[in-house]
Design a protein that fits this description.
By secondary structure, the protein is α+β, with helices and mostly antiparallel strands. The protein has one domain: 2-Layer Sandwich (Translation Initiation Factor IF3). It is built from 2 helices and 3 strands. A 3-stranded antiparallel β-sheet has the order 1-3-2, with helices on one face. The model has no long low-confidence stretch (mean pLDDT 88). Bound molecules: zinc ion. The site of zinc ion has 6 residues, from loops. Zinc ion binds next to loops.
């Protein structure tokens, strides 16, 4: 999936389903630099997995239930099971 749609799609899915398992590709050898720590969004392939972006505020709506990492074809993926902190009134 194109990462530009990542947050929108995650939000939409979390409106329909109670939990969501999110897998993101990242590079565990890529150091987290100031560019990353100053970034506001969620786009990141570095080892911080975008947790340093805006202090991780893009994850604020979510409760993280579980986390795991896996390696598929020598690409490292990080997995998060999340739920919305408060159900949205739609
Ligand atoms: Zn980073």
């Amino acid at each position: 999936m194109a990462d530009v749609h990542f947050i929108d799609l995650a939000d939409e899915l979390l409106r329909r389903y109670p939990n969501l398992s999110i897998g993101r590709e990242y590079n565990e050898h890529e150091k987290c630099y100031w560019q990353c720590q100053r970034a506001q969004g969620w786009r990141c392939t570095c080892s911080c997995q975008a947790r340093n972006h805006a202090g991780g505020s893009w994850m604020d709506p979510w409760n993280v239930l579980a986390e795991d990492n896996s390696i598929i074809d020598r690409v490292t993926w990080t997995w998060m099971a999340v739920e919305l902190k408060t159900p949205e009134a739609h």
